[in-house]
Amino acid sequence: MCGIVGYIGTKQAAPIILDGLSKLEYRGYDSAGMAIYDGEQINIQKSVGRLKVLENQTRGGESMPGMSGIGHTRWATHGAPSDTNAHPHFNESGTIAVVHNGIIENYLQLRKKLTDKGYKFVSETDTEVLAHLLDYYYKGNPLEAVTKVLHRVEGSYALGIMFADCSDQVFAARKDSPLIVGQNEDGCFIASDVPAILKYTRKVYYVDNQEVVRLRADHMHFYTVDEEEIKKEAVTIDWDANAAEKAGYEHFMLKEMYEQPKTVADTLNPRIKDNDIVIEELNMTDDDLRAIKKIHIVACGSAYHAGVTGKYVIEGLARIPVEVDLASEFRYRDPILEEGAMVVVISQSGETADTLAALRESKARGFKVLGIVNVVGSSIAREADNVMYTWAGPEIAVATTKAYSAQLVALYLLAMKLGKVRGKIDDETFASLLGDLRCLPDQIELLLNNKLKIQKFANRYVGAKDVFFIGRGIDYAISLEGSLKLKEISYIHSEAYAAGELKHGTISLIEEGTLVAAVSTQPDLYAKTISNMVEVKARGAFVLAVTCEENKEIEKAADYVIYIPETNPYFANSLAIIPLQLFGYYVSVGKGCDVDKPRNLAKSVTVE
Length: 608
Ligand code: AGP
Prior knowledge:
Blueprint: E1 3-9, H1 13-22, E2 31-37, E3 42-48, H2 51-57, E4 68-74, E5 89-90, E6 96-101, H3 107-116, H4 128-137, H5 142-152, E7 157-163, E8 170-175, E9 180-184, E10 187-191, E11 203-206, E12 211-215, E13 220-224, E14 229-230, E15 235-236, H6 252-258, H7 260-268, E16 272-273, E17 276-277, H8 286-291, E18 294-299, H9 301-318, E19 322-326, H10 327-330, E20 341-347, H11 353-364, E21 369-373, H12 379-383, E22 386-389, H13 402-421, H14 427-449, H15 451-459, E23 466-471, H16 474-490, E24 493-498, E25 515-520, H17 526-537, E26 542-548, E27 560-564, H18 573-591
Parallel strand pairs: 18-19, 18-20, 20-21, 21-22, 23-24, 23-25, 25-26, 26-27
Antiparallel strand pairs: 1-4, 1-10, 2-3, 2-4, 5-6, 6-7, 7-8, 8-12, 9-10, 9-11, 11-15, 12-13, 13-14, 16-17
Helix pairs in contact: 3-4, 4-5, 7-13, 7-14, 9-13, 9-16, 14-18, 15-18, 16-18
2-deoxy-2-amino glucitol-6-phosphate binds next to α9.
């Protein structure tokens, strides 16, 4: 998604903005631009392509002197990637500039109205409407112009706005798309996300929906869209500055894979007290938990895959029916939510538009929503009734690993808590489950340290065309995530299939040498999965098996076996996914793909 950085202060703005935008590249983009006020006018430079192009064009910002400005990296929604469609957009006289992350849903109507009034548009974007609408309302009072525009537009926005004849101020505004502001002794900052300004300040303000910020060189004021001044509390970011850097790893994804032991421990430990599970953030009494009749898990992508595992674990341990929905489906299928239902939304970024919409739909129907979220202060975190944070820290690689692993353990904790209070788990079983949970971080570390075996295997499949992942039950959920990891970072076609489903069609695709990764971590399904492996082998497949150390029988059916340490079958996903993450990573590296910023993808999909 788009990235926004703004600055006003006593330093040159352009280098600060370029530096900030470079920390937001992970959000995915296809063009970049800046608007800088040079003391007399607003100068704009923007171009399609990587941020490096803009840096070269402006000699690292030197060719754009000035101490206030706004910058943007654009992930195209309305209008193809091009210099003209890149942000900032501006009014005809060039006295107003705006950068925007989000979608103005009524832009066509507004564009027609403005065109009828004689305004001329040069781009295909929805954002340009904002520049001309600001021009239309601006009569010398910038705050008034901004708030009038915000009353007219529908949709989502995070904005940076400059007015040439109010050059001592820069404005920011937000609705649904993430935005923060911050301050240090050299000035004030706007950013889409913390990494952009972390080197300048750790004290940030999360801009809430329909709030406007007026930033000056030495202070900021916050307003509602009705121009009422409001007070906000700052949040101190305790992330280690390196946490948003690669810390010596070749890619953020590898760094974040290796952070999974810590991520899992950080998510587990605060919630295990005196050999019991305490999830205070649920804000629910044991009676509330016992009253839950059904759980709806709603998410996208890998978060959805974690939800599929959550279904098996919650139904298995707590005996509560669980329905898992893709958020993009949930919000449009008029879902049936009945009395006693609880909705759980899962989101790493906390900004995924479809998941946020599903949350709002559920709340609008009067149902409480629990958010399992990684980003503190994100939209989903702030709109959910209760939030269970995954404490994975900033995840920069587009392909999620550590946040996904944290989502899994959050769901294990929820399942065990529900199972215990509902009398479905006896004390002995509970103690055993806790013991297995506590072992996960070390077991993940062990698998990561055995990466060479999977790395060698991956190198053999850099040229693969189709790869299938199969499994039954939780193993199917693991297959879904293993397949997505390979697809999204190596661009190799892959499918995950419920192993019992192969014979209903997909097995026709198996040819000599086709790689089939069979996941088999559920003891009561070992034999069934082995028979599916035999089926595909009989048609020429090469079978990689990921299974538990006890399952030696599988060696009769597999060509290559990766063993995972013993754990409770409900938690096996947390271990089996590690070799599959490494497999996707090393295939991607072997193909020379952009591992951290795969083509067409964004870290946070804040549009539909
Ligand atoms: C994960 O590797 C993908 N990049 C993507 O599927 C992601 O999980 C999905 O977009 C949901 O994002 P969220 O967790 O931030 O809501």
